[in-house]
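**Paired protein data**
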Amino acid sequence: MPYYLSENKESEAQEQKSGWTEVTRYVHDVDGHDNPVTIHPTQFGRQQVEDPGVLDFEMLQTGHGGFKSLINNVEAVRESRAIQPAMPTFVSEVSYEGILGRCHADVQRMSFWQAILSGAFGHTYGANGIWQMSTEADPYGPSPHGRSWGSQTWQGAYRSSGSRHVGLARQLLTDIQWWRLETHDEWIENPWDGTDYDTNIAAGIPGELRVIYVPQMWNLPQVLEIEPNVSYESFWFDPMTGDRTDTVAVEPDADGAWTPPHPVVVHDWVLVLTA
């Protein structure tokens, strides 16, 4: 990777942006199937080109710091969604499972649910041994900077729990019109504020559906601003097993607030309300 050997990174980074803008335009010109085009980012894909209009959607790389990257993961999605020109936002790389000996299944679940309910239209799960394609006989070894990101083989990495948990999340999304979800911080007590990754995130379709991710379940949050003319029923989805609790009626008080029943096991859960 020549960039690692650059002695003038600032000017050559600008040269890269110009070159990749030209390449991206060329891909559009020669692609007779009109495939969507994007670019791998350092953080925001649009920052890798001179003209963000050459991209069909924005890819994000939001860090490999485990819990330390969770806040940036959400804030980057929200920032990208607010930038013009508007384009779909995809989390392409965040905290690969097992990288640096951390970023395990709990981080994978939080990264997925918090990003999707903040407006991301997609999320890539990654595991350290898989992207390196390490084997016992042929380990990936150090990267160009001289250090190795980890020694796990791909045969071990693909069995990591986080991959199953993200797969279970997808199964829930296939049962709802997830592409219509909009973030509604006002629908949940202790909502996301950009400073604490253990706060709650709510999204949904007004009058039809609410999906709420609760990462810290010891004290249940109230669901807020429930429409008085809509009858909801609810269930908890276990993001670790894919199990669902029995459906119960939502009975808000006069202010439109409702406290759901508490699942028996204390970990992160997803609450689903359907009209």
